[in-house]
Amino acid sequence: MAAHLGITIGEVRRQPVLLCVVGALSVEEVYPCLQFDEGGVRREVAFLARLLKRRVTDVEACDWLIRPRRRLDNRTPIAWLAADGDVDRVVRSLPAPSRPVPGEASLPGDVDEWKTAASPTRSPTAPWSSQPGAH
Questions:
Q1: Bridge-partner residues for 121, per DSSP?
Q2: C-alpha closest to that of 19 among 55, 45, 39
Q3: CB neighbours of residue 80 within 10 Å
Q4: Which of the 8 DSSP states describes residue 129?
Q5: What is the pLDDT of residue 98?
Q6: Helix, strand or coil for residue 37?
Q7: 11, 44, 99, 134: least CB-packed within 10 angstroms?
Q8: Domain ranges for the chain
Q9: CB atoms within 10 A of CB 79
């Protein structure tokens, strides 16, 4: 892959626009082919990878890039941008962050601070209740 891009392996690893998948059984990093064309790194992926890497893992980013999106007329984000689709529409359809976004402080009420609600229970003689009951 480094030879295809005309750079060293060390330079490949430092590329901020390349999505890299590292698995438990992988000996080396894997760079999914969806991000390359005959000229090197696809411009659509280079643009989106910078945004995606701040929000989700590289695996989640690859999955998002190859799945058709309703907001993009059932096209993949890559196909939408390759057809000169509206960039803002793609940006608005970015996935929700799966990890803290760098530079953003956590706010009160974030998901990790939510209290777990009690599971509804039902006794044989009482109606449904959201309060735990004695059994």
A1: 129
A2: 45
A3: 22
A4: B
A5: 82
A6: strand
A7: 134
A8: 2-100
A9: 17
